[in-house]
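Suppose a classmate hands you a notebook page containing two proteins, each written out with its sequence and a corresponding row of structure tokens. How would you begin to make sense of it? This section walks through that situation. The first entry is reproduced here exactly as it would appear on such a page.
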Amino acid sequence: HIYWTCEKTKNHYTESIFFTRKTIMGRENLETYIQSIQSKNGTTPALIDEDDILEILSIISWNQILWYEDLASIKMSSIFIYDIPEDKKEFNIETARKCITDMELRPYEWKNIFVLRHFDTATIQAQNALLKALEECPEYAILLLEVANTHAILETIQSRTINLVKEYKNY
């Protein structure tokens, strides 16, 4: 029932970042997932909504991240974002292959985070291309598949991920 939220305050003397525990019914899975991310062990890939991805990124970066654009200001080289190409209407196989190639990069320290935005628009080919990466996700990689509609995700993908999408958003 408890998860962390990041808040940042600043005055002319100091800048502080602090975390506040907030209670939301049924969010124990998210808290457990965040703990697994913070451990040295591997992390199971997750189906997750945008708000919770931004919450996770806020916690691990010690910055308040309300929008993906906020990531540019914190200069974390270990976060990779993949989205629908500008000239396309869906997450395509080329974008999936780029993510798979980038997953081979070892992080300088800690773990790399791979966020696949709007993954519920992914073509069947793009989803199938990621199957092996989901099955054999390296310990140094965190793979977050941003989805609003889990019904658009193949069963084979769902069986290889943890579903953290909030029930009320799952239509």
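The notebook's second entry, a different protein, reads as follows.
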Amino acid sequence: VNMAIWQFTLHFLPKEKVITYFGEIPSFLSFNDYYDADENLDISSPIQSELETYLDYFLKLSCGFERIKSWSNSLIIWGEDKGNEVNLFTAETANLEQLYAEVDLRNFRADFVDSLVEIAQKLDCILYTKNHTVISPTRGLLIEEIKQSRAYKFCVDPYGYLEQLGSTLDE
């Protein structure tokens, strides 16, 4: 994940696989818990090209996003470099491994957030956020999570955020 301080990252997790792995939908997942479970939470797609085609058309129509140059053959990226992005990692078996998005809070686009919610709902996913919380894919919940994020705090007051970060590191 190549994120910038102004990007809010969220991962799409298949709801049924989360329930199977954890026994419930947790409201919080530590970084370690998420990465320990990651290989069990892939979004398998029987026909990956259908999902790619869906994302190609949906992101073009909803946000005007097209594929952009990727640093890996296993990664497809839609959106704006270092801006709003949807990233699709694929496994060697051609099943989808990981789907995540980065929301650029320097230039907030409600249409992009709405598109992410719609994609999650279509794929029957829940969202694991950069705040380590797990939420249902709704616009209201996602915006509340964004407002709690470090990226949001940085964008609202960059100097104040860096001052606060510096004082915490000094302690």
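A careful reader of the second entry would note: The longest helix spans residues 48-63.
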